[in-house]
Amino acid sequence: MNDKNEFLKSVRIFYDLTDEEIRNLLELLHPRQLKKGDTLFQQGDPGGELFVVESGALGIAVTLDDGKNLEIAAFKKGDFFGEMSIFEKEPRSATCYAKSRSRLLAMNEREFFQLVESNPVSAGKVMTRMLAVTRRRLEDTGGFLSDMVQWGEDARRRAITDALTGLYNRRYLEEALEEYFMKARNGSKPLSLVMLDLDHFREINEKYSEKIGDRVITAAAEIYRRFLRQTDVAARYGGDEFTFILPDTDAETAHALMESIRRAIEESDLLEDAIRDSRVKSTNSSLPKVTTSQGLACYPQHATDAKTLREAADGALYRAKETGRNRVVVAQSN
Description:
The chain has helices at 3-10, 19-26, 83-88, 109-118, 120-140, 147-160, 170-186, 201-208, 210-227, 251-267, 270-277, 306-322; strands at residues 30-34, 39-41, 49-55, 57-63, 69-76, 80-81, 95-98, 102-108, 191-198, 233-238, 241-247, 292-299, 327-330. Helix 9 (210-227) crosses helix 10 (251-267). By secondary structure, the chain is α+β, with helices and mostly antiparallel strands. 37% of the residues are buried. The protein folds into 2 domains: 3-160, Jelly Rolls (Sandwich), CATH 2.60.120; 170-330, Reverse transcriptase/Diguanylate cyclase domain (Alpha-Beta Plaits), CATH 3.30.70. The protein starts with a helix and ends with a strand.
């Protein structure tokens, strides 16, 4: 690993990134050189860039009513600043200048949200660290959390979660599965993957409306949350399709957990509740029960990599549907 990679791994907002994520991040960072006394930006200038100090020192100052400048912060090697301008889209609230010869790495707003789009897992890690540090800065100066910090938290959430259910979205899932698989393999631990569909969901949408279907999906997602553990990852793959990543969980344990979810869904009145809550009168005296079909696969029992683990779970889901639905089917062993 070269010096720049090592440096980025030492920066607080990049602590959690893997070597590959650091390499991808480097493609979005641009070097900036400043001589002592140079101004990076002036109070009132347009914002939109995040900076990481690679070497040297910079000061942040505000202009007082009497025209004098008051330094309110200083940044040295490994520090970052300017992040709020990406979120709040407001002019710079202070002036930044080089206190010594300095070298920076910069990322503009477009590149930052490119990271969010292309690597939501990486962006989520960076934003979590970033917002934690920003919070501490505000608290250390006796301030309160600003609306912009909250906006930033919301932005991170929107980038990696499904708007309807609040669970993780497909983009996050696809990156997370690779990461969790590598951790399982490197730690010689099991990893279970579950793919789940709501049975005959298309008929619910067609017969009762998509609005009712959405209510059924959100209610089902609440049941998934109730049973899944804090270490598990639940994602809406699309429509009525969901995927669960269960770290450090063998097939037997995963099967028991999924059976609990299957029974809870079957025993709930999801469709009836959705119709009642939407205040739509149903002409049916007896409404069908909502049930699930689930396919389960486990590393290393059923797969040797993330791709084959997904394929094994998908195959098990297909067999669950073909053999009558409303059941959990475990993949066939290699």
